[in-house]
Amino acid sequence: MTDHTGRAGLEKDELYAVARTFEEARHEIVGSYTTNSLPDLVTASLHLAALTGLVKDLSDEVLFRVTDNDPGLDFGPVIAEYTSASAPAGRAVTNYTEAFEQLGFLRQYAEAPASADLRDARQAAFDVVQDRLDLTVDSLQEAFVALRHAADRIDGTPPRVLAALSRSARPANSIYRVPAGLPATEPIRLAYMPVSRHAR
After folding, report:
1. Which three-class secondary structure state does DSSP give residue 172?
2. What is the DSSP letter of 177?
């Protein structure tokens, strides 16, 4: 039988590590603008690349675990946390992309002759960038906190102990399955499958 000793600890460590990447990205973006200034397009390009990389990292973490067929491990709780974090990560990318577009506008018209209309357009673009950067930072914080809390909750109760627990006492956030041949809970469903309306 495969030795799963410490696997829960490894999963916790990985969740913490991924959470740190969100916090690092948030810190970089927070330091790139103030109420009176915006990041330049070089900095913004690097930020956007980093944000899209975070989304890819989440999908890679899920893919790695979804394709792991080890019968002694249940990655369901971990997968759920990574897929949940993809929502605020996606919002961060969306908001930063909208800020990026406006930064491009500001650069394009940086040397244009002054006019009242252009002044208003620049101010509007500046305000949009500020707002979208704030939303990006908020989304990164949301993902960071969620992943940290998820890591805190991962349960490392050994399989033999799980088997001795009653169904109601068995932790739902354990990555270990009850060993074969021992009392088990109901089968784990991978996805919701609605009952056919023609079933009798």
Report:
1. coil
2. P
pLDDT in tens, 154-194: 988 877 788 788 777 778 888 888 776 544 445 445 566 67
For 43, list phi and psi in degrees, rounded to 5.
-60, -45
What's the number of CA atoms in the CB half-sphere (13 Å) around residue 195? 4
Residue for token digits 């993902």?
143
CA distance 57 to 52: 9
Separation of alpha carbons 50 and 56, rounded Å: 10
**3-state SS, residue 83:** helix
For residues 200 and 190, give the distance between their C-alpha atoms in angstroms, rounded to a whole number. Answer: 24
Going by C-beta distance under 8 Å and a sequence separation of 6 or more, which residues neighbour residue 73? 4, 7, 175, 176, 177
Q: Which residues pair with 34 in a beta bridge?
A: 37
